[in-house]
Amino acid sequence: MESSSEQKFYNFVILHARADEHIALRVREKLEALGVPDGATFCEDFQVHGRGELSCLQDAIDHSAFIILLLTSNFDCRLSLHQVNQAMMSNLTRQGSPDCVIPFLPLESSPAQLSSDTASLLSGLVRLDEHSQIFARKVANTFKPHRLQARKAMWRKEQDLEHHHHHH
């Protein structure tokens, strides 16, 4: 038996501003409908009351293959920018899994609404834009099954290592 709920691995987790929970849930359902199973949203799966936001965030980053940043005009709060920074940093330090941070522009927002801070932070990353004509194809190309499996294998290895550390 799995010892705790933290042992679950998600193919993606959507980080979002508090006000955008409904959008995060919709996007998760849409991605799952497009064939990317086992998605999570920060509010549903990682926001544990009474725990620090940052440890919740680190859990989300550690337990998912892809980190999706839900870009809306609400995303501009300091916490979100901090989330982006932390996700980017762990993106660099994670072995074997670069490119796991995906800025996502949902139907509910337009690029014009994003602040220059957000835009410049994410300028080096290719955005997944839900307004795109070929959105479904881009999703398929981004979340390729072999990439997801590779991430999961890496995660298993890390879990095993952590497990051994605790016991010795």
Overview of this protein structure:
By secondary structure, the protein is an alpha/beta fold. The protein is 48% helix and 14% strand. It has a 5-stranded parallel β-sheet, sandwiched between helices. The longest helix is centred in the C-terminal third of the chain and has 23 residues, at 145-167.
- Number of E-type strands: 5
Query: Spatial order of the strands in the main sheet?
Result: 2-1-3-4-5
Query: What is the percent of helical residues?
Result: 40-55%
Tell me the fraction of residues in β-strands, as a range: 5-15%
Q: Tell me the overall shape.
A: globular
Give the H and E element order: EHEHHEHEHEHH
Report mean pLDDT, rounded to a whole number: 83
What profile does the largest beta sheet have? 5 strands, parallel
Rg, rounded, reads: 16 Å
Question: Count of DSSP helices?
Answer: 7
What class would the helix/strand composition place it in?
alpha/beta
Low-confidence stretches: 1-5
Separation of termini?
21 Å
